[in-house]
Automatic annotation (TrEMBL):
Record Pfam families: p450 (PF00067)
Cell inner membrane found in the keyword field: no
Record keyword tRNA-binding present: no
First and last residue of the signal peptide: none
Listed name of the protein: Cytochrome P450
Keyword terms, alphabetized: Heme, Iron, Metal-binding, Monooxygenase, Oxidoreductase
Tree of life domain: Bacteria
Length: 453
């Protein structure tokens, strides 16, 4: 490790290092492909800023929270690129992949859809869909909680976006397409040369068909809503009526299409995986589950939870936050330097890939003592104040922070409270959690047995 001076903060000398295990031509690509979570979590031990090789290219992983903040809070220097360009195949020029003034313009247009009164209104659909889903559960029945949560969250996302006019068969078809496309985007991202995606393989043809069909489903919903002119109070209505606060200009159908597809991905894939991880952790830690049940019983007194109840469910929210720490949906992301700059005391040329990883931050023992331990009390009272600024990064930071973070946390807490008020979920003996790092971090199959409370 080589100490290097930095102006932020001036009292700290940054340390830089190089990731071990690079091989000729491939660099660390095989490590990132074979065991990405373990590899990333190991890198903070080598410095605050660690050089990695992606094939012939040099990249850097920002391992210290302040360096990550520097990257995320300065989008003019640390620009989106690389993997985000791959994601445009699915997400178009939506908020999650747009840059610069275009991103600022879109965010101002869309932000009202995520104001607190709107989020409170969306939760009615969340509660209804959750109660309907668990209404068919039976004592002793074994569920794949991962698949169950993905099915539920696809319905929740569809209802939040469209509220009416989309039937169960179309929702299931959209979910099927979304899984194919999401997996395809990840594979294309991990193949930076872009050769395989251009070949007419069965997998590429399946990807193209799923992508086209998903966008067709959404486009038909937008066109129908435009024709009817009805305001259903859902996200689609909000987007169709959005106007820039200065110019008064609205979004055209293509722009609305890109945003809706993005919200379907973010609103179903990431939240569903988080819920599956939460229920797995509760099942594996009965003492934590007991406290969650006690809190829910005390606050709800036998009724169904509402948006207004969520601030009182402090321990339950701590469980969710700790799950996000252990299993962050966005496990790795990147920026590209738009100009030569300094980071961690190193001069970094323009066009350099800068990686940052919630996985590396969240499992760093210098930031979180005993990082592999599931400990919801990290987020309660004075202990929560001890967490270093920027150490928890499940939704990003800065102007590109996930616009739906509050909605995602609200949905997660409401669904956990609704299910946990009626059911326990017990892991099937012999089940091993094997997180799958794809476009987002997924839990893989998680069979659990329903047990009524």
């Amino acid at each position: 490790m080589t100490p290097a001076k930095s102006s932020a903060p001036p009292e700290r000398p940054w340390t830089t290092g190089t990731a071990p295990g690079s091989v000729p031509l491939l660099g660390h690509t095989l490590e990132l492909w074979r065991r990405p979570l373990q590899f990333l979590a190991s890198l903070p031990a080598h410095g605050d800023l660690v050089e990695v090789r992606l094939g012939p290219s040099r990249a850097y992983l920002a391992c210290h929270p302040e360096l990550v903040r520097q990257v995320l809070l300065n989008p003019r220097v640390f620009d989106k690129g690389g993997v985000f360009d791959k994601a445009r195949q699915l997400l178009g020029n939506s908020l999650s992949v747009s840059r610069g003034e275009d991103h600022r313009y879109q965010r101002r247009m869309i932000q009202p859809a995520f104001h607190t009164p709107k989020i409170a209104a969306y939760t009615a659909a969340v509660a209804d869909d959750t109660r309907a889903a668990i209404g068919s559960w039976e004592p002793g029945r074994t569920l794949d909680i991962s698949d169950t949560m993905h099915a539920l969250l696809m319905r929740v996302a569809a209802r939040t976006l469209f509220s009416t006019g989309i039937d169960e068969a179309t929702i299931d078809e959209a979910r099927h397409c979304l899984r194919i496309v999401s997996d395809g985007i990840y594979k294309r991202t991990m193949a930076p040369l872009g050769i395989m995606e251009k070949l007419p393989t069965p997998g590429n043809r399946r990807y193209d068909r799923a992508n086209a069909r998903l966008r067709q489903i959404v486009d038909e919903m937008i066109r129908e809503r435009r024709r009817s002119g009805a305001d259903h109070g859902d996200l689609l209505s909000t987007l169709l009526r959005a106007e820039h606060p200065e110019t008064g200009k609205g979004l055209d159908d293509g722009e609305v299409l890109d945003q809706v597809v993005t919200f379907l991905v973010a609103g179903s894939e990431t939240t569903a995986s988080t819920l599956a991880f939460v229920f797995h952790l509760l099942g594996a830690h009965p003492e934590v589950e007991k406290r969650v049940h006690a809190e829910i019983d005390e606050i709800l007194e036998g009724r169904s939870p509402t948006f207004e109840d969520l601030p009182s469910l402090e321990y339950t929210r701590g469980v969710i936050t700790e799950s996000l720490r252990l299993y962050p949906p966005s496990w790795m992301a990147m920026r590209v330097t738009a100009a030569e700059t300094e980071l961690g005391g190193r001069t970094v040329p323009a066009g350099t890939m800068i990686l940052y990883s919630a996985q590396a931050l969240h499992h760093n023992p210098e930031l979180f003592p005993d990082p592999e331990r599931f400990d919801p009390e990290r987020w309660l009272g004075d202990r929560a104040k001890e967490v270093e600024r920027g150490a928890l990064l499940p939704f990003g930071a800065g102007s590109h922070k996930c616009i739906g973070d509050v909605l995602a946390l609200t949905e997660t807490a409401l669904i956990v409270a609704t299910i946990a008020s009626r059911w326990r979920l017990r892991p099937v003996p012999g089940t091993t959690l094997r997180p799958e790092p794809k476009a987002t971090l997924e839990p893989g199959p998680l069979p659990m047995v329903c047990e009524p409370r």
